[in-house]
Amino acid sequence: MKSFSWIPFFMSHSLSTILAFLLITCVISQSWDQEFNDQNLLTYSFSENVTCAENEYPPLSSDRVPTYIINLDLPPKLRWSHLMADKKESGKLFPLVDKYLPLVAETLPEPYLSELKGIAEISGIELGEITLYNIFYEVFTLCTSVISQGADGKIYHGRNLDFGLFLGWDVKNHTWLTTEALRPLVVELDFQRGGQTVYKSVNFAGYIGVLTGMKPQRFTLTLDERFSMEGGFVGIIRWLLGDRSSNWAGFLMRDVLEKADSYHQALSTLTTSKLLAPVYFILAGNATDQGVIITRGRIEADVLSMGRGSVSQVSTWFLVETNYDHWNQPPFFDDRRTPAIQCLDKMGRETASLSGIFNVLSTKPVFNKLTTYTCLMDVSTGQFESWIRVCPEPSCDTIDISAGQQRSIDVTDDALLEISRRLYSMDVNGAYDQLELNLQSKTSSGSRVDKAPLPLFKNGVPKDVLSRPTYAKLLALFDNYLASVNETELVTPQEKAEETAFLDAVFGTSVVKATHQFLVSKGLAESSVERFKEQLKNIWFGLYQRAPGKQGSSGFEHVFLEEAKGDLNYLGYTRVLSLGKGPVGLIELPMKYQGVFKPHSTLMIGSSPELEIALYSICFLARPDTLCPISGQINNGKSTQYKIQTFVSKFHGRQFVGSAFPTF
Ligand SMILES: *[C@@H]1O[C@H](CO)[C@@H](O)[C@H](O)[C@H]1NC(C)=O
Ligand SMILES: *[C@@H]1O[C@H](CO)[C@@H](O)[C@H](O)[C@H]1NC(C)=O
Ligand SMILES: *[C@@H]1O[C@H](CO)[C@@H](O)[C@H](O)[C@H]1NC(C)=O
Ligand SMILES: *[C@@H]1O[C@H](CO)[C@@H](O)[C@H](O)[C@H]1NC(C)=O
């Protein structure tokens, strides 16, 4: 993949994977699974007993980030020359992407376009690559920002920048943008005019926006990514489609540092400018209580001021922002906020200082394997220092084990067989008796010949089956999804509501209640129903909510809707596995899906949506990335064993169902 179309490309995979698995079971080919499986991002899971780091400051002087002067009096094209000449490891700097990104570059506002062109020339990096590199930071970083105020009212501001980018760009080799590759590129920049510092920042060489910056005596400013339900890509796609009314957050940060002369001016610009993507701005001033977290949508803004306290943090002398809205709990699988707050509380206001903040930012998992630098800022003295960070192995590793893998040791094969047998027996919404199958001819794996001209379901799927709550809500979700594919705004509040309605319906079934009990007993889910619902929502819908996938919808339509209506383009079967009496339970077949031929897929026939979600979720949590034994039994027939394979998709340090399918 060498074009900007990577976004829909990548998303369509995840999207269609996730959607397709809601009803139909296995549509995803080995190669895709491989792709999901291959990702080497890390995940955090919150350890409840935080050990606050102590005496970490100062780190080794060799970890101090070098400083470069950026002379704003030079023409934009020349400003970055000396830095890029120094860092000219162009072979190392991401040898990818070329053709389409220059077109995007041309759309960027001045002086940024000229600066990028200058960088491209001096470094020998394609303009497309350098543009991509600049755009990525808008959406692919994880961070923690802390503002604290000492007993004397003096404000300190610190941040960790965790670089969590992974995208399935080059399927064969997707280690191209690693934290390791970036660390040598971290530089401090001193932006000067007339030989005087106007502002400072810490950047990756080649990136010309600002994510962390300070205007001495005036204000300090950091940007954290916000994974918003609005979808971080929507604004960027709008930009590409020609809507230039919004700002790139990193460039806006730089504009503010350049032009705003006071904390209040900065606050005003940061709350009112239109943005391409949702973000958090963390802004602190030079006077007591001047500190805010600005939670931004593309248009709207929420401002949490220091001193006020909020649901998530009671103490009034500091503010912590990671990547979640302050009015919500962070998800349990990525809670860096709670440990940071605990350690700040432990430190106490009296000892608030840059070294104290450094300790907090050195506490795992606030400090983690993706952390590339820590920056400390004291606006009143102009002290600005950043440090390269490498979370030491193996102690960092222990944080990175996913919740499931860590605790699944307890879940025996017998326990999995028993719970799955029970769930099958509870599956009153299953359509096992109501489907009349017409298997027709046997075919061979990989055969494209249609050996079965008639539909698989002789009489389609009966209306009364489709009108059962979990089926109906699922269909509604999809209808809605399909209806919105022509719009730019891809995840509407209505869709979110449909999603919730579907989960509510599923949670009303005894199948999912029993699943919850089982997972709680194995330490794989929290006992609160709401938290469990949130957990399932995250693993099943997390990526979908951010996804602009037009292709995905057609893939879904092709597979899911047609399947639901009973007229899937069925080419014949290769094997069947009967689960007791009645129609077969699993059918293995070749299938054409989303224009891609899958030589080998497996369908679960007649199982309700809730049963499929339940079985996949159990396997995903108890036996991630491997085979999970299942005992299927329909209509009191003989129980038959098969296996479910799940693959974990990791994205932004979070875990999602990449794929899940039965196999026998
Ligand atoms: C947390 O750690 C402290 C001391 O390190 C220990 O006494 C306590 O039992 C731990 N609590 C839990 C829940 O593990
Ligand atoms: C793929 O990545 C490895 C490092 O993981 C590197 O050594 C190799 O050269 C890369 N291959 C290509 C074709 O870029
Ligand atoms: C910033 O704060 C310091 C110390 O609190 C103070 O001495 C200085 O005058 C302030 N600067 C401005 C521009 O207000
Ligand atoms: C999307 O647009 C196409 C043509 O522009 C139209 O034919 C189609 O019906 C639209 N689909 C929906 C779901 O609105």
What would the average pLDDT be, to the nearest integer?
Answer: 74
Specify the CATH class of the largest domain.
Alpha Beta
- Please mark out the parts with pLDDT under 50 across 5 or more consecutive residues, or reply none: 1-47, 90-97, 164-177, 397-408, 483-489, 544-567
Count of separate DSSP helical elements: 22
Stated plainly, the CATH topology of the largest domain is called Penicillin V Acylase, Chain A
CATH architecture of the largest domain: 4-Layer Sandwich
Total domain units: 2
Gross morphology? elongated
Number of strands: 19
- Separation of the first and last Cα atoms: 34 Å
Q: What's the story with the biggest beta sheet?
A: 8 strands, mixed
**Computed Rg:** 26 Å
What proportion of the residues form beta strands (DSSP E)? 15-25%
Which small-molecule ligands are present, each listed once?
2-acetamido-2-deoxy-beta-D-glucopyranose
Report helical residue fraction: 25-40%
The order of strands across the largest sheet is 1-4-5-6-7-8-9-10
